Amino acid sequence: MLILGPTIPLWNPYLCIPKSDLTVIRILYIAFISIALFTSCKSDYQRMLQHEMATGIRHDSLFLGLKLGMTRKDFYTICWDLNKSGQMTQGNNNVSARYFLNEGLKAPAYLDFYPTFNDDTISEMPALFVYKDWAPWNKSLSADSLLIDVHQLVDKWYGPGFIEIKNKEKGNLWVKVDGNRRIRYFTELPNKVRMIITDMTNPPKPIQ
Questions:
Q1: pLDDT for 119-178, tens place per residue?
Q2: Which among 186, 202, 179, 170 has a CA at the least distance from the CA of 56?
Q3: Largest CA distance in the chain
Q4: What is the pLDDT of residues 176-186, one digit of tens each?
Q5: 135, 147 contact by CB (below 8 A)
Q6: In sequence order, what are the beta bridge partners of 182?
Q7: What is the spatial distance between Cα 197 and Cα 177, in angstroms, rounded to a whole number?
Q8: Measured distance CA(131)–CA(124) in Å, rounded
Q9: pLDDT (tens digit, 9 = 90+) per residue, 29-69?
């Protein structure tokens, strides 16, 4: 006949901790898990934006000598000088400036742009890249082909470090944040690549 001895309870470390301290430990544990979950839910873009904005560094350069924070008067002065030298003309419907890109791409192209102003200074710069000789039957000059060239061009202008993200409205887009300056670009079929550069310390005001 098997005789069982007295049951010996397993050692429980929490029995050695006062209830008040145990409550604190539980609260800290829950807080740690919550912070870990919140951090893990942030996207690469959100982490990049938060880190760069925290640096307090400003990067205002756009292109062609234009800058974020530039006054409307200075913008028109630079465009007028480029127009006189034959490098720029008016874009579609005379609502944008058009700069001719004859280098850096596999075929001649142009860049249409016009800034958004906040309190008479540039807060955002939307722009469009387009191959000059694009036509519906010329697939080699489509947006997908242009995008490859733009990848290389923006790396040259602004340095590497762009990340690819998914967007419900725009599909795949590429983004980089340097201090206050956020640069995004993406295709607009069938023949365009749109780039938007925003001053995140002075973003465009919503339309009333």
A1: 999 999 999 999 999 999 998 999 999 999 999 999 999 999 999 998 888 789 999 999
A2: 179
A3: 110
A4: 999 999 999 99
A5: no
A6: 177, 198
A7: 10
A8: 23
A9: 554 544 443 444 578 999 999 999 999 999 999 999 999 99
Q: Report the pLDDT value the prediction gives residue 22, as an integer from 0 to 100.
A: 54
From 177, 150, 153, select the one nearest 163 (Cα to Cα).
177
**Element at 97 (helix H, strand E):** strand 97-101
pTM of the predicted protein model: 0.79
Which stretches within 42-90 are classed as H helix?
Answer: 44-55, 72-84
What would the mean pLDDT of 190-198 be, rounded to a whole number? 97
| Backbone phi and psi for residue 188, each to the nearest 5 degrees, phi listed first | -125, 100
Q: Which residues contact 141 (CB under 8 A, 6 or more apart)?
A: 107, 131, 133, 134, 135, 191
Torsion from C-alpha of 49, 54, 58, 60, nearest 10 degrees: 20
Closest by CA position to 153, among listed 105, 186, 86:
105
Three-state secondary structure of 148-183 = HHHHHHHHHHHCCCCEEEEECCCEEEEEEEECCEEE
As a dihedral over the C-alpha atoms of residue 147, residue 150, residue 152, residue 157, rounded to 10 degrees, the angle is -160
